[in-house]
Amino acid sequence: MLALNRTNLQPTTFLLLGIPGLEADHVWISIPFCLVYLLSLMGNVSLLLIVKTDPKLHEPMYVFLCMLCVADLMLTSSTLPKILSLFWFKNREIYFEACLTQMYFIHSLSTMESGFILAMAFDRYVAICHPLRHSAILTPTVIAGMGLVIVFRGAILLSPHPFLLRWLSYCKTNVISHTYCEFMALIKLVCNKTKIRRAYSLIVAFLTGGLDFILIITSYILILLTVFSLPSKAARRKTLSTCVSHVWVILVFYTPAFFSFLTHRFGHHIAPHIHIFIANVYLLIPPMMNPIMYGVKTNRIRERFFKFSTIKCV
């Protein structure tokens, strides 16, 4: 039942539906969701501790990776507890202000993640295309400045989103056909004209994730041009191997992100449960996979992780 504030037709609470059509399977779906969440927490916290305690890993790439880990931890922790509460206890209610807050954190932290992945691509570009100037270009001051710019970009550009939705009239329903609050799911519930708000969201998405992706592709084109100019095949293979983990991070992050973004706006023929499942994959899988991919590829991280695990077991 739609409980409204009569002054502006705002609901006091929203009801999260979960995954439409799969409500009967929510308990079973929650099992892999919970496991992925626990692996994300363990992996990212372990990676932060390993990098912090090992001076040899105090390099720009791993500093940016730690920033990404922090964003991943905040993103999953702002969504997964409520999703699991919905699946396990059918706790569908979420307060209006809490819903807007969750939406802000999801979009701003996702934007920060994209920025940190771009920063890691820039590090790979400098390390491969300008190796003699790497330490001179990426100084601790520059790294800290890049991190702050990425954080403030996400925080400021996405800050209008809650206010764009705060004063609208939600006269259709207060049921959100999703497992969490996000901009496009909420905008579909209002009766006001939303063309300007949708346009702003689209522009911000392009200026952040879209532009980041273009710059990442550009950096890798320059990297490939440099690599293929190397004289020996062994040198080319060794140089490219330093980018493998980062390329996987790019694919894991941007593939579901673009799918979710495009289907929300243009994929009306796609079944709702498929879209919402992919939207959850976008939030769950990258935070779990990032530490695994770097742990598997980086001997130093892998060795420290096993050493840390052994100490804990003892």
From TrEMBL:
SUPFAM superfamilies: Family A G protein-coupled receptor-like (SSF81321). It is a multi-pass membrane protein. Keywords: Cell membrane, G-protein coupled receptor, Membrane, Olfaction, Receptor, Sensory transduction, Transducer, Transmembrane, Transmembrane helix. Belongs to the G-protein coupled receptor 1 family. The chain crosses the membrane at residues 27-50, 62-84, 104-125, 137-158, 202-228, 240-262, 274-296. The keyword ATP-binding does not apply. It comes from Galeopterus variegatus (Malayan flying lemur). This is Olfactory receptor. Residues 43-294 form the G-protein coupled receptors family 1 profile domain. InterPro entries: GPCR_Rhodpsn (IPR000276), GPCR_Rhodpsn_7TM (IPR017452), Olfact_rcpt (IPR000725), OR51/52/56-like (IPR050402). Its main location: membrane. Pfam families: 7tm_4. It is found in: Cell membrane; Membrane.
